[in-house]
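Q: Hi! First time asking for a complex rather than a single chain. Here are the components, and I think there are two in total. Is that enough to go on?
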Amino acid sequence: MLKGIDPLLSPDLLHALAAMGHGDEVVVADANFPAASLARRLLRLDGADAPRALRAILSVLPLDTFTPTPAAVMAVVGAPELVPEPVREFQVLVETAAGRAVQFEVVERFAFYERSRAAFAVVATSERRPYGNIILTKGVIPPA
Amino acid sequence: MLKGIDPLLSPDLLHALAAMGHGDEVVVADANFPAASLARRLLRLDGADAPRALRAILSVLPLDTFTPTPAAVMAVVGAPELVPEPVREFQVLVETAAGRAVQFEVVERFAFYERSRAAFAVVATSERRPYGNIILTKGVIPPA
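A: Yes, that's all I need. Here is the structure of the assembled complex.
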């Protein structure tokens, strides 16, 4: 553990988040997500649910301000207009971190998998609720 | 880079500092120090001097409060009573981070090498001034 850093950010997760650059993406994945088969770099947060993992990541990761949609969630199969419970919780966490209203991109299931395959890292959580997945796009840290 | 984290803390250095536990030690080494030959885990901060590296590390690393001397420096060969310029700068940085007066342990050159060999990591800096070396002992982060 380190001073001022969420203890859920493991050494490997901190490493990945710090190594990401502008436009790189990280996926927070629920317990049913095919994380191990898709991920270029797999990080496990067994024990944490998706909002808890998201909160830890957002405590250090700047969201991209070059795009109106720095976060993407998975469309409910057959009912893309529905907003699943974890996504409602993600919305509050992302908007709090961004300090502004943020429109989530809603991505069809297999397109979400393809985008996750290209992501810098996938963080596998113990989230049991369906559609507990979110892709974040990293922004920049301005000069001091 | 990450929000609220000194940009000098590279992904590898952050990983090492986060992975260290209570009592583990990290060495900040000057440019003449035999870092590559001694280190169990070598991390390079070429470009930074030793006080700059120390300041970055102390921004996240808790110092050990179980010992009166959570920091050790190298004794000047033949004149152990001297306090080299980098050590005077270390003193200010360590005491500021600790929020209290801190007595440095002063360790004979070869004993300092042996202790560095056992350390969790050695951070090699571009510090050109002699005796720009310090060993820090990690403390604990209390429950929130």
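A: The CA atoms of residues 73 and 134 of chain A lie 5 Å apart. Let me know if you'd like any chain examined more closely.
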